[in-house]
Design a protein that fits this description.
Oligomer: single chain
Number of helices: 3
Helix content: 55-70%
Strand content: under 5%
Structural class: mainly alpha
Distance between the termini: 46 Å
């Protein structure tokens, strides 16, 4: 293994660690809310089970994601 192989291996390690940290940081922790933080509507039980830690109803979450992407 030469220095280029080690550099590629190290780059792959740091990239994987960075992506894992970003993914973990973007996931809410704890129990899901029963009502949406944005609009106040009830969050359906199916959504709360499917997305633990959710804080928004489906409509508000979709809007927030579109806004974040600049759409």
């Amino acid at each position: 293994m030469d220095e280029f192989d080690r550099a590629q291996e190290q780059e792959a390690f740091y990239l994987a660690a960075s992506l894992a940290a970003q993914t973990a940081a973007s996931r809410p922790l704890g129990a899901s809310l029963t009502h949406c933080d944005d609009c106040g509507e009830a969050i359906p039980e199916d959504r709360r089970r499917a997305a633990p830690g959710c804080t928004r109803c489906m409509d508000c979450q979709a809007y927030a994601e579109r806004k974040r992407r600049g759409l």
